[in-house]
Amino acid sequence: MSANSAVTRTVDVDGTPFAYREIGLTEGVPLVFLHHFTAVLDDWDPAVVDGLAERHRVVLVDLRGVGSSGGTTPDSVEAMATDLAGFLRALGFGEVDLLGVSMGGMIAQVLAQQEPGLVRRMILAGTSPAGDAGPANALALLQNALQQAAAEGKHPKHVLFFSPTARSQEAADAFLARLNERTEDRDAEVTNETIGAQATALAKWEQSSPEGLTTVRQPVLVVNGDNDVMTPTISSFNLAKYLPNAQLSIYPDAGHGALFQHHALFVEQALEFLSA
Amino acid sequence: MSANSAVTRTVDVDGTPFAYREIGLTEGVPLVFLHHFTAVLDDWDPAVVDGLAERHRVVLVDLRGVGSSGGTTPDSVEAMATDLAGFLRALGFGEVDLLGVSMGGMIAQVLAQQEPGLVRRMILAGTSPAGDAGPANALALLQNALQQAAAEGKHPKHVLFFSPTARSQEAADAFLARLNERTEDRDAEVTNETIGAQATALAKWEQSSPEGLTTVRQPVLVVNGDNDVMTPTISSFNLAKYLPNAQLSIYPDAGHGALFQHHALFVEQALEFLSA
């Protein structure tokens, strides 16, 4: 089962259906992908999903109110982490690895503090520790990117996820083409209500404290591009610094979506990290 | 030929004998190791040398006035880079990869600007761009470390190259044991005169400008530990930021000698980087 053919299923989490897909191995510690602001199941790069699924049981999920999942998206990262814990229990997962991108990386950070026993290892890509400036601008950046993209005939991800160089923009084209490979059973898009709740959660994140990170003992791989306009690259440096056992990788000429641009390098480093 | 058995040879560089050792492949683009402040040929970790030599022609060198080389160590990084260019030409190398640690990483940065055609790729470990604070303290840090090490029955590298945690200090013990594996044909230690000239060069480095780094087009892998007291970790972040095509790796719970502590991970990332 590959990223583009995996069936979308739902599981009941305290009365709400959560949509998810499973790809790759059918046993071993699951590797759960946690989505970014505005993203649904179809926003995951098949190159990354299938690359990691070669050696892992990969699970993609829409949290509450996102994509095809039911319920209303909560407006705090903490509540999203509680939803994630409920989802993991509903699938019977006692221990997981997490790949969190942007807002998903924040959810992972909180889960590791709320329920350390559930988390074996984490990969945190294009994200920031609580208290760092950046995430509160997400909605404004999105609106600007929508305008710029419309004016230039581009996708907003050209602006938000990649650096402005020709090489990075070409990588954006290739990434967007991969996202369009799946033709059947595509996920629903996020609603404006969900975008609003997520933006509020991101704004609150800037007002929160990163203190608890120093208690996270799990091995963490922190990844970003050297030119991230959404969660500034320095925040990945700060995140790795707070965490007692974090390895940091910053990729050249890349933005918020560095793991998608440099997918071959990322998959290789992630596989190595998860197996070490 | 392994790190511990490689014969020490000399080559004449404009009338001065430069000591060097060759390990690994006998063809391909040479990978030249550039030593740190106070280091000689025997300060290279055999785990790193032999790991990289499995796929590369590795060349270790004592620059002018260092170890068994003749001449007087110059007191600027620029002059050291000129010496390096002379050494490469003396061996007939038209293009090389460079692994520069600390001061060696500074020499590599300058060579890539002075003679871009000579440099294919660079790995810069535990080093800093010109203008960043840190290197000017090297001599004072060394003197403090000598005192602390004597008081605690340790080697100064326990203090200068590793973080204070139990895990990192154990890695220091293992590293120092590896450095002692070679019993025959050991190199001469650096003289106080050389240490003084190198310290002057490091102090001048802080007063220099990093501007030229933006013109370095070669792929660069920047590596450090998350707790470097000699060239603060943030300088590796800054270095990667100046360079247009740099990948950054920061290793957990490690100091200036992160590449020696995490030698398996470093060798793997370095091999991947050099072959990409």
From TrEMBL, chains A, B:
Name the InterPro entries for this protein: AB_hydrolase_1, AB_hydrolase_fold, AB_hydrolase_sf
User: Coiled-coil segments, which residues?
Assistant: none
For this UniProt entry, the molecular function terms from Gene Ontology, in alphabetical order, are: monoacylglycerol lipase activity
**Record GO biological process:** acylglycerol catabolic process
Task: Report domain AB hydrolase-1 positions.
Answer: 30-262
Pfam family for this entry, one: Abhydrolase_1
> From which lineage does this chain's organism come?
Bacteria, Bacillati, Actinomycetota, Actinomycetes, Pseudonocardiales
Record-linked SUPFAM superfamilies: alpha/beta-Hydrolases
The protein's name in its UniProt record: Pimeloyl-ACP methyl ester carboxylesterase
Give the PANTHER family listed for this entry. Answer: MONOACYLGLYCEROL LIPASE, MONOACYLGLYCEROL LIPASE ABHD6
Q: Name one GO cellular component term.
A: membrane
